[in-house]
Structure formats: structure tokens, C-alpha cells
Amino acid sequence: MSDAPAIDEEELRSRVRALLEVVHPERADYVTFRRAQFDHGLAWVHFPEGHGGFGLSPKMNQVVRDEIQKNSTVYYDDPPAGLIGIGMGAPTLLTYGPEDLKKELLPRLFTGEDIWCQMFSEPSAGSDVAGLATRAVRDGDEWVVNGQKVWTTVAHLSKWGMLVARTNPDVPKHDGLSYFLVDMEAPGVEVRPLYQITGEAEFNEVFFTDARVPHSRMLGKEGQGWRVAITTLMNERVAIGSGGPKKKGSGAISQLLKLWKARDHNSTSPAQTAVLRDRVTKSYIEAELLRLNSLRASAIAKSGNPGPEGSVNKLFQAESAKRLWETAIDVLGADGLSFEAGYELRQEVGSAYDPEGRSKYQFLRSRANSIEGGTSEIMRNILGERVLGLPGEPRVDKEIAWKDVPRS
Ligand SMILES: Cc1cc2nc3c(=O)[nH]c(=O)nc-3n(C[C@H](O)[C@H](O)[C@H](O)COP(=O)(O)OP(=O)(O)OC[C@H]3O[C@@H](n4cnc5c(N)ncnc54)[C@H](O)[C@@H]3O)c2cc1C
């Protein structure tokens, strides 16, 4: 990416206008426009030329967005189920994939024609994902996969799954893993929904029974799976951590302020109201800190993959979101106790049970924020050890062959 052509902001804006002359979102469907955007290098401007970008700084993506929105009433954002593929799969494929796979799959990721999922966690391997047990055994030009994954978000919508599997049990856990792209429609791959407290099943269990994966769909080399997985995980933390407000006072905090303004402040004692006002104010300050921290992170972001500091915003986003939605429920008072009529189990992503600002839904959903993408405890470990340089926690299984590590 260092041999990037010199494209400044003005030149980038003129390239966006040139794209809009050829194909315009007001007159083209989603896939047609996004495909043209990709072919013009305006999908991810920080990606190399030929792969949807020009090797520019990631913050220049905002320039593309601004210029399209200035010239069109229609804006085609990333597909709702595309966060994992676009935020985590694309940079992993770019870094470790063979050229033909990048050419084939990157455009389809951007157009939403292919949704991707991440198959890392297992029933006995979440925080300690390097200890996972799903096995892949080589058979000629293919790998035969057996095992089970869990909490696999959007697996039911996915064409491709990023799989980390154990290819060598005779070496320590981090050294015996390999990373594959799995066709989710292939025989031997079974997806079963898991329902959450929100009523949705955004995630699933995935079972592999003699599923065959071509060797050509391995990302990185055999035994390099942990390194490849770290690239996915670092990008995941940045993708989750940058989900805060884009404009001052926007997003979740604006919902809380609306509820606060609509509240009957005489319904509780002045002291209780004052305490609640303090919590609303604190959430406002936290939302602003999150926004400013995201801006700072994107201003210093270089092209390439993020480092462990991406965990700062991931941790802060998770914990502040939980505080914000707990405050929202307390502002609602007794109304906060009831869930909307029509609560049902359904397999959608982001379905709206709570038209009045979704605060009851978000209160339940935000429980997951400090678990998904690595728990808050694990984020604190990463920040302590890899950013602050504190002593590491004991890792007794580090030098032992995976097959010899005692497990229940
Ligand atoms: C909404 C949602 C979506 C998800 N989507 C995906 C997905 O698409 N793909 C995927 O692969 N996974 C996904 N996950 C799984 C997620 O990554 C794991 O749940 C998470 O890493 C925790 O693993 P675990 O559930 O096995 O908990 P455990 O690892 O068993 O942890 C249990 C508790 O112990 C604590 N703990 C564990 N180890 C330590 C330690 N060393 N130090 C201090 N505390 C520790 C944890 O913080 C936690 O509180 C998703 C989870 C959620 C909630």
C-alpha cells in the first residue's frame, strides 16, 4: 500500500463525481451501484488499486461518503448483515488470501451478494479460542472438517464462513491451527439457530460432519491460523468499537435524551430525579468521549491492520452502552418493565420490537456488547499486557502439545 498514487481530497471528490456520472444511486439498484463503486476504487479507498481502493488513508472513506451524500438523495450503506464480512473478512482476505480469491470474493462482499460469518468460538473455546477442538484433516487437495462452532452470527444468511480449525494436535495450541474459507452451502455443514433474550436468533450453532474444504481456500499457510485469526479479531474490535455516535449527540444518546425530555419528572422525588439527571449527563459525556476517541483513532489510523489499541474503544463502547440503556430503562420507570406485544422468536438481524426508540430492545441487546468480539475482561487483559506492558497472566498450557492439555 506504500506505492499509493497521490490522490488528495479534491481529486478523490472529483473521482466520486465521475462515478456518479456513469451510475447514480437514484437510478441504479443496490448491487449495480455498489459494484460500480468498487470498480472505480471507491469502495474501500484504503485498499490497494484493483481491490476496491487506491491505497489511501482510511479516513478518506468519509470523503467518498460525504461526496455521494452531497450529490444524491439515495445512499447505499453497507448491508445490515455485512459487518462481519466487510469489517473483518475483507481485511483478512486482503492480507492472507491468494490473488484469485481476492478478485473473486472482495467485490461480492461489497455488493452484499455474499454474506460472511466468523466461525471461531466453540462450546469449550470462547475467550481461549486458541484451544478450539474442531479438526481438519488433509485428504489430497481437500480438508475434511468435523466439529462444532457456536455463537456464529448471521451463519444462516452466509455464503462463506471464516473457519479456524485444528490441523495439528501434536504441537502447542497456537501452532496447530489453520484458517479456511468454508462454503456454508456445502454438504456436511449444518446451521441451527440460537435464540437470545431479545427474541432474535442473530447467531447460530454450526455443525461439521465430514465437510470438505478445498486446500485452495486456506488463508495463510498450514499452521498459521492463529496469526490470520488475530487479523480478523483486531479488525473486529475496531469495527465494534467504532460503532458509536458519528455526530455530537446522535445515535443512542439522542434516544436517551428524548426519553428524558418526555419523562414526567414529578413522578419521583426531587432527589431521585437529580440522581437520574446525573446518570443521563454521565452517559452524554461518555457518548462524546467515545465519538472523540473514534475520531482520534481514525485520524491516526494507517492503512493496514489495526493493533491491540483497537481494544480501547471496544471496551469503552461495551461498558458505556450497557450503562446508557440501563439508565434509559430507569428513565422509563415502570414502563421499562414491559416488552412490546408481539414478542416472538424470529431469525432476523436488528428487528425492531420497540418502535419507541428501541430502548427496551437495546437494554437487552447491550448485554451482549461486553461478550461479543471478546469479553471486557479479555479486553482489559489485552490492554494491560500488550498496550501497557504489564506482566502477563499465567499460561500453563503454552508449551504443551494441544492433545496433552487436560480438558473436561
Ligand atoms: C451477540 C454475540 C455474537 C457473537 N458472534 C460470534 C461470531 O460471529 N463468531 C464467533 O466465533 N463467536 C461469536 N461470539 C462468541 C464470543 O466471541 C464469545 O462468547 C466470547 O469470546 C466469550 O467466550 P465464551 O462465551 O466461551 O465465554 P468464556 O470464555 O467461557 O468466559 C466466561 C467468563 O469468564 C471470563 N474469562 C474467561 N477467560 C478469562 C481470563 N483469562 N481472564 C479473566 N476473565 C476471563 C470471561 O470474561 C467471561 O466473563 C458471539 C457472542 C455474542 C454474545
Write a structural description.
The chain is of the alpha+beta class and 408 residues long. The protein has 3 domains: 9-77, no CATH class; 85-98 and 113-222, Butyryl-CoA Dehydrogenase, subunit A, domain 2, CATH 2.40.110.10; 232-387, Up-down Bundle (Butyryl-CoA Dehydrogenase, subunit A, domain 3), CATH 1.20.140.10. 39% of the residues lie in helices and 12% in strands. The chain is built from 11 helices and 8 strands. The protein has helices spanning 9-22, 30-39, 61-71, 83-96, 99-110, 225-241, 252-262, 270-300, 311-332, 359-365, 376-387, and strands spanning 116-119, 135-139, 142-149, 160-166, 177-183, 189-194, 203-214, 218-219. The protein has a 4-stranded mixed β-sheet with strand order 1-4-5-8. A 4-stranded antiparallel β-sheet has the order 2-3-7-6, with no helix packed on it. Strand 2 (135-139) and strand 3 (142-149) form a beta hairpin. Helix 7 packs antiparallel against helix 8. The mean pLDDT is 91. Flavin-adenine dinucleotide binds at residues 117-121, 126-127, 151-153, 203, 368, 371-372, 374-375, 377-378, 381.
